[in-house]
Task: structure prediction
Amino acid sequence: MDNIYWDIVKSVADESAIDEYKALKMWTKIVGKRVANVTTPIKIISGKMIVKVKNSVWRNELVMLKEEIIRKYENKLGNKIIKDIKFV
Result:
């Protein structure tokens, strides 16, 4: 994003909204391309990320990896933006 536009966004959005935006944008970096190809992060509500998953097999696999994904977010963002993930 161009710096001038980013400055405008930061001036009108609160810090948590910016962190949530960053979290959604970094999904592929967090989970890798293989998982990103079968998932779509939809939104974050009160620390819970909603992620659409291609099928139930992947959903079950990701439920087991949920804590690891949350830890990766903590390491990247340095805070607790993502407290939970719901795979739908």
